[in-house]
Amino acid sequence: MNCAIVKEWMPHYIDGLLSPEMELSIRLHIESCPDCAEWLEEAKAMSELWSEMDADREQLQAQMDFPDLAADVMTHIEQLETGRRSRATKATNVRRRSAPKTSWIHYGVAACLSLLLLQFGVFENLAYGITEINGHMSNSVTQWFGGFGR
Ligand SMILES: [Zn+2]
């Protein structure tokens, strides 16, 4: 277990998505590595941020479901006559509910990271070439985003 792997899997570690063995080896590494421990704290803070965003999203979706509910009732009424619209409504529902939740989480991470990085001026530094000072940070960022792509 090394720092690169720990940081790559950290989002899953926080979400509790890892196997017990993986989780244990990451936890052991973090306990013995101040650098990764710091990462974990930052990642947890971001995790709280994006869970807030997630709550907002669910609220939004609940509002969006409202007209759907009315449409469902209408559909059931009309179903007595034709049943044609019922199938259309079901198809719409399935498509929306099967949208992977993780993509929203990744979007949240990316958004939070971008915000943080902009605050730290990392993007600005990247534009001028990676110096030794921010090289470590940039590598870490690449690992984060690289991990999401898989
Ligand atoms: Zn480490």
From TrEMBL:
<feature type="transmembrane region" description="Helical">
    <location>
        <begin position="104"/>
        <end position="123"/>
    </location>
</feature>
<protein>
    <recommendedName>
        <fullName>Anti-sigma-W factor RsiW</fullName>
    </recommendedName>
</protein>
<dbReference type="Pfam" id="PF13490">
    <property type="entry name" value="zf-HC2"/>
</dbReference>
<feature type="domain" description="Putative zinc-finger">
    <location>
        <begin position="3"/>
        <end position="37"/>
    </location>
</feature>
<dbReference type="InterPro" id="IPR041916">
    <property type="entry name" value="Anti_sigma_zinc_sf"/>
</dbReference>
<keyword id="KW-0812">Transmembrane</keyword>
<keyword id="KW-1133">Transmembrane helix</keyword>
<dbReference type="InterPro" id="IPR027383">
    <property type="entry name" value="Znf_put"/>
</dbReference>
<keyword id="KW-0472">Membrane</keyword>
<comment type="similarity">
    <text>Belongs to the zinc-associated anti-sigma factor (ZAS) superfamily. Anti-sigma-W factor family.</text>
</comment>
